[in-house]
Design brief:
Helix content: over 70%
Number of strands: 0
Largest sheet: none
Number of helices: 22
Order of helices and strands: HHHHHHHHHHHHHHHHHHHHHH
Structural class: mainly alpha
Length: about 425
């Protein structure tokens, strides 16, 4: 297959998306049509078996379980108390509650797995306090949008689960690879706030002056997310459970904490189940269609054509990754993160593997690119979510101005990971005994 045909197929998918067709429809249309034109009905007929084997995988079951876990934390009253507990300790730092936004997003990400859910949850909880203490709106909204992106980097991450399925890479290794970069990125966000928005929050004196006894009493609300994260990740890294089994354990623990809060009702369970089913269904449909596209790509030799075409430029690993960085940042300006992930991984992963790039490392890199897409105007999903939870009727430009410095910061962070790949690979190598 020529590189021109690969380009035509990719462009056709983008065109169908621009025409407002659902992402899954655009992917399956090109994948099935391409397979039929190249090999006829036999290739199309075998796709049913691919769907069954893909959806029947235990790793796919982890997606709705982690979605349900996040819904229970959100609707069970755990997330809002977590923010209050963070606020009384971090309000005295230069930047005040802006640090609380980042810290709460980080901790919620460690139990949720969804950036949109993280941004919506923390934004809904934080904005009343930010408005009460007269924080400047642009930095406040930017910190919420950027902090929310950590939901797909810090494990458990739905995007890492999807990448693992597409790239046939260990989910446990990917989760381990996301821990150090996720924490470092959260610290980088706080460092930016410290330097450029240190004067914000001067009026939050009642939080700063709260007695130590009251602060310690609020600390108990940090126990549920820490316990859930410790058990879920500890069971995976300790070799005691698969990601799917650990997700189920996390759901059971979350149900216990919700029951202790006296919020466990049939209506809550129904609401959490319906919402997690809707979100999971969307993700799994897109994933299945991408796997079908992967069949066509493999059978037609598109991946090999791309690999040979890239190899002809004789690029170094660093140069190749810088090209991909620019490509993904531009792609993220008009495509949502999940679509970008499932559309490009089947094509790009053979190229990066041929260049000697570790698939686990590349998984973290591409998720960071997805994070950038979430806060890159004009179609950054987290920008819409954070703006949507505002109640003051402010301009959409407030959140875009507040988020743009974080886009630059994440791009610099991605380059840093290129120069020091062990920031990603240290923990996976340690757990694997390498």
């Amino acid at each position: 297959m020529s590189i021109a045909l690969v380009g035509i197929g990719f462009s056709l998918m983008l065109l169908l998306m621009f025409l407002s067709l659902p992402v899954a429809v655009a992917i399956i249309a090109v994948g099935a049509m391409g397979g039929y034109l190249m090999y006829g009905m036999p290739l199309v007929d075998m796709m049913g078996g691919v769907i069954w084997s893909s959806v029947n995988s235990p790793s796919i079951l982890a997606i709705p379980l982690f979605m349900l876990l996040g819904e229970l934390l959100l609707r069970g009253g755990i997330a809002d108390r977590m923010y209050d507990a963070m606020a009384v300790w971090l309000a005295r730092l230069p930047g005040g509650l802006l640090h609380t936004n980042i810290a709460t997003c980080t901790l919620f990400s460690a139990t949720s797995g969804s950036s949109v859910a993280t941004a919506a949850t923390v934004g809904t909880i934080a904005l009343p306090a930010l408005q009460q203490y007269k924080y400047p709106m642009s930095p406040a909204l930017g910190s919420l949008a950027a902090g929310g992106t950590l939901g797909i980097l810090i494990p458990p991450s739905v995007n890492l689960l999807v990448y693992g399925s597409l790239a046939n890479t260990s989910v446990g290794q990917l989760f381990a690879g996301g821990v150090v970069p996720g924490v470092l990125m959260a610290l980088a966000f706080s460092a930016y706030i410290f330097i450029f928005h240190g004067r914000a929050g001067a009026q939050a004196t009642e939080l700063i002056d709260m007695p130590l006894r009251d602060k310690l009493a609020l600390g108990k609300y940090l126990i549920p997310p820490l316990v859930i994260f410790g058990v879920v990740m500890g069971s995976i890294y300790g070799g005691l459970a698969t990601p799917t089994e650990s997700a189920a354990i996390g759901v059971m623990i979350a149900l216990g904490f919700v029951a202790l809060n006296r919020r466990l009702t049939l209506d809550l369970l129904i609401e959490c189940s319906i919402q997690s089913a809707k979100t999971s269904g969307m993700v799994i449909i897109v994933l299945v269609c991408s796997l079908l596209l992967n069949v066509t790509i493999s059978m037609t030799g598109a991946a090999q054509a791309m690999t040979q075409w890239i190899a002809a430029f004789d690029l170094s690993q660093l140069a190749l990754l810088l090209v991909l960085l620019v490509f993904y940042v531009l792609l993220g300006t008009f495509m949502d993160a999940m679509s970008m992930l499932v559309l490009t991984v089947p094509i790009v992963i053979p190229v990066v593997v041929a260049a000697g790039i570790e698939p686990v490392w590349f998984g973290i890199f591409i998720v960071i690119m997805c994070e950038i897409a979430l806060i890159t105007p004009p179609v950054g999903m987290n920008l819409f979510v954070v703006h949507g939870v505002r109640t003051d009727g402010g301009s959409y430009s407030d959140v875009t101005r507040g988020a743009l410095p974080y886009v630059v910061l994440m791009m610099v962070f991605a380059v840093l990971l290129m120069v020091f790949p062990q920031l990603v690979m240290w923990l996976p190598d340690l757990l694997a005994g390498r």
